[in-house]
């Protein structure tokens, strides 16, 4: 029969062996985590690179699921700003500034159309409970008009262009959106309401409509943004 000292030593060896095995297992798990983390990081970098090359371009960006891309100015050079006065900028660009009467602000679960609003593009009115995220939308991915009106209620500026807009112009509009904090509280999308403008910007209860696109329009859009961004009845980050 083993002595008490021998039994004690045996148990000690067993305990040390268990600890060594646990330490080895933990080290193996940690190495695996590092490897997986590296693979995921490389995958994420690759995905971002693809998104930058493919997702943000002259066609307006956007994702396959309809979600927006982040605004990115890229290498586009826009005309220098000449004035910070909205009325003067709009007059020079041949645009009109309107403050239509507020049509309502009730949430309704229905499919809204341009016929539900008195202004084209709409600047207020009843709308869906959901809304779009800030960003740039690929032509055809937006808009659900009830959701775009809801963004205005949150203080967003919605810049929109007609279906026949050249890709070069869309690229410049993307750069305009991006020049202020990567598109802070702005949306850019193709208008599908048959609006009488080539380019328009809307805020809650406010409209800038430009029937002809030109370099002067950029000042009109900039000054409209400065005047009305974050002025909606609901403050949403």
Q: How much helicity do the residues have?
A: 25-40%
Query: What spatial form do the alpha-carbon principal axes imply?
Result: elongated
Note the gap between the termini.
77 Å
Strand order of the largest sheet: 1-6-5-3-4-2
Q: Would you list the SSEs in sequence order as H and E?
A: HHEEHEHEEEH
Main pleated-sheet profile: 6 strands, mixed
> Which structural class do you get from the secondary structure elements?
alpha/beta
Global Rg: 28 Å
Low-confidence stretches: 23-61
Our count of helices gives 5
| Mean residue pLDDT | 81
Give the strand content: 5-15%
Q: What's the total number of strands?
A: 6
Quick overview:
This protein is α/β, with parallel strands linked by helices. The protein is 40% helix and 11% strand. It contains five helices and six strands.
Give an overview in words:
The structure is a single chain. By secondary structure, this protein is of the alpha/beta class. The protein has a domain at 86-228. It contains 5 helices and 6 strands, in the order ααββαβαβββα. It has helices at 4-55, 86-93, 145-153, 167-178, 216-228, and strands at 95-98, 135-136, 157-161, 186-190, 199-203, 206-210. Strands 1-6-5-3-4-2 form a 6-stranded mixed beta sheet. Strand 3, helix 4 and strand 4 (186-190) form a beta-alpha-beta unit. Helix 2 runs antiparallel to helix 5 (216-228). It is elongated. It starts with a helix and ends in a 9-residue tail after the last helix. Mean pLDDT is 81; it is low at 23-61.
């Amino acid at each position: 029969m083993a002595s008490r000292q021998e039994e004690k030593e045996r148990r000690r060896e067993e305990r040390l062996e268990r600890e060594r095995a646990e330490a080895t297992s933990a080290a193996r798990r940690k190495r695996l985590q590092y490897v997986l983390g590296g693979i995921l990081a490389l995958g994420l970098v690759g995905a971002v690179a693809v998104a930058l090359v493919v997702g943000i371009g002259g066609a307006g960006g956007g994702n396959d699921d309809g979600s927006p891309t982040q605004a990115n100015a890229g290498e586009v050079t826009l005309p220098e700003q000449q004035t910070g006065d909205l009325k003067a900028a709009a007059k020079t660009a041949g645009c009109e500034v309107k403050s239509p009467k507020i049509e309502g602000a009730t949430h309704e679960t229905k499919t809204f159309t341009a016929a539900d609003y008195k202004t084209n593009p709409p600047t207020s009115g009843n709308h869906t409970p959901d809304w779009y995220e800030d960003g740039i939308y690929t032509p055809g991915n937006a808009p659900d008009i009830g959701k775009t009106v809801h963004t205005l209620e949150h203080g967003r500026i919605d810049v929109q262009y007609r279906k026949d807009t050249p890709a070069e112009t869309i690229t410049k509009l993307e750069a305009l959106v991006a020049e202020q904090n990567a598109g802070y509280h702005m949306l850019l999308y193709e208008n599908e309401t048959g609006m009488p403008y080539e380019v328009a910007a809307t805020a809650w209860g406010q409209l800038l409509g430009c029937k002809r696109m030109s370099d002067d329009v950029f000042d009109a859009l900039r000054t409209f943004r400065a005047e009305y961004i974050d002025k909606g009845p609901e403050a949403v980050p």
